[in-house]
Amino acid sequence: MINPKLISNRLFYLIFFLFIFSDNYAQKEFKNNLIQLSGVVISSDSLNQLPYVVVINKSVKRGTVSDYFGYFSLVVQPLDTIIFSLNGFKKSSFILPDTLKENRYSIIHILTEDTLELPMVTVYPWPSKENFAYAFINMKPYDDALRIAQAQLSGNSLAFIASKVSSDAMLSYSWQNSQRNTRLYSMGQFPTNNLFNPNSWSKFIDAWKKGDLKKE
């Protein structure tokens, strides 16, 4: 008489071994289907390499970004749909073939520029005819660019601007450095007195002869 307990044990071990075998086979098949996809993305018009292109595997919702030279690499499976997108270019796709014999595949993918033509727009310098009439009546035809530049670069204008501009760090440093050099020059003796400076006397006499002192 056959022991039912023995039959159930054998049936249990048989199912267990079948499950382990099928799982290992499925993992082996899955590993064999993995493909290392690599490539370069280029522009259709200039054939230049396109950096920072978003490369998405639509089938598994994973992806990568091409580097500065347009190179990318990711793991895919046969019949996966790869989406390429970049601002200024049309989005395109690539389907991996299912007839590959190796686990590596390289491509050169081309993106086409996405151009948008807008209607012609005429830009006028005045928003209305009234503004144009006002500008035409009040314009100063003799104040051309050269005359305006000469007026702004005159001595009076530059002196006025200089009086309004505060001293910067470089000017303060130059003044302080000049004072320090003067102290070092006269160190151990009386300070310099321009009353005994022949150069100052020469400038004073020349200004006296020219009449500059009378003008002041």
Distance between the termini: 142 Å
Order of helices and strands: HEEEEEEEHHHHHH
How many strands? 7
User: How many domain modules?
Assistant: 2
Largest sheet: 4 strands, antiparallel
Give the proportion of residues in helices. 40-55%
Mean pLDDT: 78
For the biggest β-sheet, the strand order reads 3-2-5-6
Low-confidence stretches: 25-31
- Taken from the alpha-carbon principal axes, the silhouette is elongated
Structural class comes to alpha+beta
Percentage beta strand: 15-25%
Number of helices, where a helix is a run of at least 4 consecutive DSSP H or I residues? 7
Measured on Cα atoms, how large is the radius of gyration? 43 Å
Description:
The chain is an alpha+beta fold and 216 residues long. The protein folds into two domains: 33-111, Carboxypeptidase-like, regulatory domain (Immunoglobulin-like); 129-215, no CATH class. The protein is 42% helix and 19% strand. It has seven helices and seven strands; from the N terminus they run αβββββββαααααα. The chain has helices at 4-33, 129-137, 145-152, 155-164, 169-185, 198-210, 212-215, and strands spanning 35-43, 54-57, 62-65, 71-76, 81-85, 92-95, 104-111. A four-stranded antiparallel β-sheet has the order 3-2-5-6, with no helix packed on it. A hairpin with a 6-residue loop joins β5 and β6 (92-95). The longest helix is centred in the N-terminal third of the chain and has 30 residues, at 4-33. It is elongated. The model is unreliable at 25-31 (pLDDT under 50).
